[in-house]
Fold this sequence. Notes:
Order of helices and strands: HHHHEHHHHEEHHHHEH
Number of strands: 4
Distance between the termini: 91 Å
Strand content: 5-15%
Structural class: alpha+beta
Radius of gyration: 61 Å
Number of helices: 13
Amino acid sequence: MSAHDQIPSSQTQPPAEPASEQPAKTGQIATTPQPARQPAPRPKKPGAAGIKARQLKSQQIIDASMQHPVLPPASAAKLERRHYGMAISFVLVVLIPILVSAYYLYAKAEDQYASYVGFSVRSESAPSPADMLGGLGSLVGVTSSSTSDTDILFKFIQSRDLVERVNARLDLRAIWSKAPGDPIFSYGGDASLEDLVAEWERKVRIYYDTGMIDLRVLAFDPHDAQNIAKAIMEEGGLLINQLNDIAREDALRYSRDELERAQERLRQARQAVTEFRNRYQLVDPVADVQGQIGVVTSLQQQLAEQLVSLGLLRANAQPNDPRISQTELRIEVIREQIEAERQKFGSNSSEAALSDVVGQYEILAVDRQFAETSYTAALASYETARAEAVRQSRYLAAYIRPTLAQAAEFPQRAKLLLMISLFLSLLWIIGSLIFYSLRDRR
């Protein structure tokens, strides 16, 4: 190694002169001097005191670990008896029932065909002429009740009566027993009607919404399902016709009864007027009173004329003139006649006052007028009810005719199997939780 290599690098490099001490040369542009880059500081080596502190700390850790030894690692997990119990219970409660259900649904369950039908009850009602006769339209008795008829039909389809009628037509036991190898979906009841009604509830589903009825009928043969749907629709139509006949008969009976009552009321009112006329020998007391008023008015005019004549005679003639006495006599007679006519207003042949007679006649006239008006309304009601009776006001309107299935839709095997699996799994989970919660309490 040469002497030049042994010299440190710090000594070989000349120290940089400050920029301020270097004069600018002539013809050169002065520039701002850049500071020299300082080298990164090297980490200091720990001294003897630091090394000794670290050794002391390591020794303390070793001593502490020797005083409290570390536990050995956990052993590998092993299956215990409770795990085997859970697995066995899962197999018994969930897997085996699911496998048995799948075997039955796909190997034993027979195909079922569905027939759909939909209908509603329609009602027609025409305005009644009697509704215009001053609020007397309530006598008609013809009302529309399509909503209540639909409710009745809804209950009728679920009734025992309909099951008996359809069974008498088609023999439902034979239809629903065509799958002897299917003990669940096939009919397995006895000859009692109660078992047949229970099977009816399984095979016939009814849906009711806003006055419309939809039916789904199941059978092992598509034609049997369609025939049952047709029978239900026909029996429903017969029920609606019976309700229609009852309503028409009620309307006619009520209208007929009201007409008979109105006739009897009018007959009694007219008979009372006739008896009144015979008793008082007056056809129309009001007209008689008006005539008597005219007589009194005429007599009063004559009396006024005679009084004027008497005044003139007394002014122009002699006191003993016979014309004066004749005029006075005439005036006296007229006054007596006026008094007699006025007496007739107070009494009639010393039996009853004419004012009372007129009052009684007015009461009888009002009764007769009311009876005539009631009779007119009742007659119009009867004619309207009879017109309603000759036409059908309620009928069964089918918007879906009984369908004939081309493929089996039931039983829905995948859906049923999924529901069974979910139910069994939920049952197993709940049972396991209950079992372990009870065991932990002991």
